[in-house]
């Protein structure tokens, strides 16, 4: 159906019943709920109906609209009055789920908020603490609050978790995955993520070009680690480096990090023997712990060990400022909001997948001048 045909059908239903539900309209017209929500928003902007959570009422709403309207009002409270944009539309409300709000993601959130304000949208934030059940609960609450779309960073990457893949695929709102990759079976979502593999490749190549024919990787297991390892190993193959020492710090059975001290001590002993002269460390906090332990043993940074770290959250604040791969966190949040708003404005456009490349910020810890 053409948009005008759908609009006429929606208004006919309202004239006949006084109220309609998005799900019922989508089923009867054979289109997606996303398309109907977009139609309802446009008609509401033209003053032809009153938009409520989950549906619409005849405009204007009066006490004589009948029992059906009263029932819908009781079940779905109308949205509060909001400012309208230049076209007379109400601003979009975007639900945003992140796994934590203390490390890495604050910058992503800031980037998203800045562009949301610029586009006249509003963000409602939820935090799941890396728990899939909490992911589901928080998203259910966001949906119940009437958000128009989701900026979603699930606890697990859909490419590595079948449960997450199935759940994301069942969501009936426009979804943009943020710092997560979409698997092919998840065919109705978009994604904006950092190309972490490229970041690790960049850092490993930089250390190799300083004269190190072998680079170690010290990394705590995380959602990002597989991509970092992939980039690190690709750099070794591309440059013909000797296979470097790989030290992965595993998660416990409860998915909590195991104590780091024993892993740091083992790595420090390896450096002390001269077997490792350059290392990529993921993440900044573990790099700081490692540097402190190395210096306590009289090991010089960067004289005995050249270090590059990943995340660039606090790398510049170390006693010896650390060279770091810096993901474009704010740009990821900003691009995700642009993508979601564009999707809401144009529900029939092709789906998009965007990878943003990080940059390498060269500091004193690798023994090379910045450039």
Report on this model:
- The chain is an alpha/beta fold and 371 residues long.
- 41% of the residues lie in helices and 18% in strands.
- The protein has 12 helices and 15 strands.
- A hairpin with a 2-residue loop joins strand 2 and strand 3.
- The longest helix is centred in the C-terminal third of the chain and has 17 residues.
- It is elongated and about 85 Å long.
- The relative contact order is 0.11.
- About 8% of the residues have low confidence.
Distance between the termini: 57 Å
- The CATH architecture assignment of the largest domain turns out to be 3-Layer(aba) Sandwich
**What is the general shape?**
elongated
Give the helix/strand class: alpha/beta
- In the CATH scheme, the class of the largest domain would be Alpha Beta
Number of strands: 15
Helix content: 40-55%
Short description:
By secondary structure, the chain is of the alpha/beta class. It has 12 helices and 15 strands. Strand 2 and strand 3 form a beta hairpin.
Label this structure with key terms.
single chain, 371 residues, alpha/beta, Arc Repressor Mutant, subunit A, Rossmann fold, 3 domains, six-stranded parallel β-sheet, six-stranded mixed β-sheet
